[in-house]
Amino acid sequence: MSDGMRIPERVQQVARWDSIVIGGGPAGLFCAIHAAAAGCRVLLLEKNTRPGAKILVAGTGQCNITHDGDIRSFVSRYGDHGKFIRPALMSFTNTDLMHYFAARGLALRAEEGGKVFPASRKSADVLAVLLAECDKQGVTIRCSEPVTGITREEGVFVVSTGAGMYHAATVAITTGGASYPQCGTTGDGYRLAASLGQPVTETAPALTPLNIRNYPFAGLAGISFAAMPFSIWRDGKKVRDCTGDVLLTHTGLSGPGILDASRWIRPGDTVKLGFAGPVRRNELAADLAKRAPENPGWWVGTILAKYPIPERLNRILLGISGIPEKLTCAHFSAAQRSALAATCTEFPMDVESLGDERVAMVTRGGIALDTVNQKTMESKLVPGLFFAGEVLDIDGDTGGYNLQAAFSTGYLAAQGSRKRLSSP
Ligand SMILES: Cc1cc2nc3c(=O)[nH]c(=O)nc-3n(C[C@H](O)[C@H](O)[C@H](O)COP(=O)(O)OP(=O)(O)OC[C@H]3O[C@@H](n4cnc5c(N)ncnc54)[C@H](O)[C@@H]3O)c2cc1C
């Protein structure tokens, strides 16, 4: 530990480590690197045989590391929890992250739409930079050491693994969520935090596709819609309006818009799809009423051609609306126009289930945010205990927002830990 830091003498005598970081994902690696760079003796304990399993699978192995938008716009990308993460994002921004990797020889590129990837498109290159930096800053990494317990005795944390017990003045829990258990993320951090008295909110899979009851579009799997408006309904009431790219799958809905909205969707909800794009039901009905008489010889399906509805879907929507495929506009009744407008703008999809933790990209819920200091990532209940990354009750949209959150909160937790070690 550097001379500038003061921790109680008893803690200094007992604790071999200034900081123990539990979990070697992006949050843990970044926390360990920056705590060590500030002069702390840091031990990182990782459950797997090597750190960074999720970095390697991120972005299908290409690692969408962040987004190049204005950092202030990030706040809206974490559901209702963006406000909490603002200080972390501001303390280590997307620009800081891009400079960080560029300065260490890894060029990053933004693709159209703003997603940022390593120019090599290899997640392994991102992990290599982080591991080299751990080495350079003197972080001790012990792999294949799942942490099974933490206690705090007279200001010293005692961290247990199958291999032994470690003592530290501060601990950062960066164990990620409970999705993709094949990456080592099985919700251990929630249990460890709870054992220290830290409240954990209900957790569930997020960034996950929907399985739809009586799904009528299995034959159209693979068709996607850009910026489709859709709404979420529960017990007959609208819960939220959304817009995003939607993909029809064999069993339901996916695509970035649905994945992002999945944090708000529960089994039993109805998702109403706006196949016709940003047009309301009554506007479409009015448009059909105006244009049908102008084109009496056209088939009704033809009149929908100006809307973003692929032909195969067009036929199915007509059938579902009870309209014969070859009905001409001359015989298109008001009731049929109304039925077709409803089908094209508010198509109801009843959600049977959400993709479980084996397919969900993140977990919603986690360490209760009102018990964590958003400026330091330190627990308000257990001094010296820090959190970073997905273990917190934070889940971001697709597009690089989750990795940015992990890096930013990891960075802030390192600063918080350093401050805790310096405080009398
Ligand atoms: C398939 C997939 C693709 C994704 N793609 C992207 C993307 O392109 N861009 C993006 O922004 N986000 C992406 N994400 C989400 C992103 O990867 C995670 O949100 C992010 O990795 C979380 O970082 P973390 O450090 O908090 O946790 P993790 O990366 O999950 O790391 C936690 C670490 O803790 C270890 N651990 C767990 N329990 C213990 C224990 N008891 N003791 C010791 N170690 C333990 C785990 O083994 C793991 O190494 C993707 C997720 C998935 C599943």
Task: Write a short abstract of this structure.
This protein has 424 residues and is of the alpha+beta class.
Tell me about this structure.
This protein is an alpha+beta fold and 424 residues long. The chain has two domains: 260 residues, FAD/NAD(P)-binding domain; 147 residues, no CATH class. 33% of the residues lie in helices and 22% in strands. It is built from 14 helices and 18 strands. A hairpin with a 4-residue loop joins strand 4 and strand 5. The two termini are 15 Å apart. The mean pLDDT is 95. The site of flavin-adenine dinucleotide has 38 residues, from helix 2, helix 3 and helix 14. Flavin-adenine dinucleotide binds next to helix 2, helix 3 and helix 14.
Q: List low-confidence stretches.
A: none
Shape: elongated
Q: How big is the Rg?
A: 26 Å
**Proper CATH architecture of the largest domain:** 3-Layer(bba) Sandwich
Which kinds of small molecule does this entry bind, naming each only once?
flavin-adenine dinucleotide
CATH topology assignment of the largest domain = FAD/NAD(P)-binding domain
Q: Give the total of beta strands.
A: 18
The fraction of residues assigned to DSSP E strands is 15-25%
The level of helicity is 25-40%
Mean pLDDT: 95
CATH class descriptor name of the largest domain: Alpha Beta
